[in-house]
Specification:
The chain has 447 residues and is of the alpha+beta class. The chain has helices spanning 4-20, 76-92, 125-140, 209-222, 240-253, 256-260, 321-327, 358-362, 413-418; strands at residues 25-41, 44-62, 65-71, 145-164, 169-185, 192-200, 232-238, 280-283, 306-310, 313-314, 335-336, 343-344, 349-352, 367-375, 385-396, 399-412, 420-422, 432-433, 437-445. Helix 3 runs parallel beside helix 4 (209-222). Residues 232-446 form the Metalloprotease TldD/E C-terminal domain.
């Protein structure tokens, strides 16, 4: 793995070589991922792995034509060939008036913000094994747990360096720690499984393995003896660990490339009410130790906190430079980057504005469903039609009771968002964070 300074020097050298070879503009991105992990099952070591990969991608423009190539071989001779190949490809590519580097006057010029996303200490395999064993032992000790799918602990480090021919150069690194456990409760055809996990940038922020395991075991046991319930319209309440998928669908619908293709169910809704007035969706790339925090985007633009939905109103799309040009707008600092051309994505996202407790949220529900797991991908991003398999727990007279499985919940995301009610139990555990959510008017298909 190259150091950050070495990676940035390699990217800048590649851009300079592309310009000398005839490119009108170019950018290069270096990425490296290194990870180690240990998994156990039934108290025995099952797997120890260590992986490391690095790549560099070069994008070159010749007029309005462009091409991108990448390589995992960083040897000087290989990079020379990379430059020759990308220039030749760019000359033969079709013209695209929307393609190009980010506007020079919008590039990040200031010092990178300190985000505290890199942990200097790397745990050794012995520590990872001990944490995995502790999580599994805790899960298996829960009464009713009969088997284990395993537990694990891991550590990862990623580095990114980006250089452009019009003046941007930057690099950063981030780390991740994780712990998980997955167990089975019951016997034979009555078996049920569930899991628990936690991820954090720093080891000292990661949840105690015993707590993760205990939660996995309790969840699996709670799902025993599920029933199916009659079909019909019911209030649906989403647990925070799966409710964030709803905001994921919203983010996909406001992505610039999707809007430019006219493939979004929120097309033409910018500036309009899409959520209830009390709710807002915030994107915060500068959250300290955030799982998706980053100082600059995939094109070298500065990142900043933004209110994607402000008091229910859709404020803006997520735009990279190409989709911004296509829509006649300015890029928003949401470009993402792998080894190829930029894409679009949000960072640390959360929904805020809920005032009721989860208990109050369901207190008037005579009969409803508390969803803890969603299955399948039955979502149409163009129309917003939503239909997914679900399991969870029946709500009767405002209280959660028996387990429910093998049902389907359906609706349309436009209506679902308009009827969304949020609780006040927001916690920051994931890349997308939501409190407990309630949606009335959905249809449940059961017996």
């Amino acid at each position: 793995m190259l150091s950050l300074n070495e990676a940035l020097d390699r990217a800048q050298s590649l851009v300079a070589a592309a310009r000398r070879a005839g490119a009108d503009a170019a950018d290069a991105v270096y990425g490296c991922d290194a990870s180690s992990g240990v998994s156990v099952r039934l108290g025995e070591l099952e797997d120890v792995e260590r992986s490391e990969s690095e790549h560099i991608g070069l994008r070159a423009f010749v007029g309005h034509r462009s091409a991108t190539v990448s390589s995992s071989d960083l040897a000087p001779r290989t990079l020379e060939t990379l430059v020759e190949r990308v220039i030749a490809m760019a000359k033969e590519a079709p013209e695209d008036s929307y393609a190009g580097l980010a506007p020079e006057d919008r590039l990040m010029k200031k010092k990178q913000p300190s985000l505290d996303i890199e942990d200097a200490d790397e745990p050794d395999p012995a520590l990872l094994r001990a944490r995995a064993l502790e999580a599994e032992e805790s899960a298996r000790s829960v009464t009713g747990v009969t088997n284990s799918e395993g537990a694990g602990a891991s550590f990862g480090r990623a580095q990114i360096a980006l250089a452009t021919s019009h003046g941007f150069a930057g690099a950063y690194a981030g780390t991740s720690h994780s712990i998980w456990a997955s167990v089975i409760a019951g016997q034979d055809a009555a078996m049920q499984r569930d899991y628990a996990s936690h991820n954090a940038r720093h080891l000292r922020d990661i949840e105690d393995p015993e707590a993760v395991g205990a939660r996995a075991g309790a969840r699996a046991v709670a799902r025993l003896n599920p029933s199916r319930i009659p079909s019909g319209p019911l209030p649906i309440i989403f647990d925070p660990r799966i409710g964030n998928s709803l905001i994921g669908h919203l983010l996909g619908a406001i992505a610039g490339p999707t809007v430019a293709r006219k493939a979004s169910f929120l097309l033409d809704r910018k500036g309009e009410l899409v959520l209830p007035r009390e709710l807002s969706v915030i994107d915060d790339p500068h959250r300290q130790r955030g799982l998706r925090s980053r100082p600059f985007d995939g094109e070298g633009l500065p990142t900043a906190q933004s209110r994607l939905i402000d008091e229910g109103v859709l404020v803006d799309w997520l735009l990279d430079s190409a989709s911004a040009r296509q829509l006649g707008l300015a890029p928003t600092g949401h470009a993402t980057r792998g080894g190829g051309s930029p894409g679009v994505g949000a960072t640390n996202v959360h929904l805020e504005g809920g005032t009721a407790s989860p208990r109050e949220l369901m207190s008037d529900v005579k009969r409803g469903l508390y969803v803890t797991e969603l299955i399948g991908h039955g979502v149409n991003p163009v129309t917003g039609d939503y239909s997914r398999g679900a399991s969870g727990f029946l709500i009767e007279d405002g209280a959660i009771c028996c387990a429910v499985a093998e049902v389907t919940i359906a609706g349309n995301l436009k209506d679902m968002f308009a009827n969304l009610v949020a609780a006040n139990d927001l916690q920051f555990r994931y890349a997308i964070n939501v409190p407990t959510l309630r949606i009335d008017g959905m249809t449940l298909a059961g017996e």
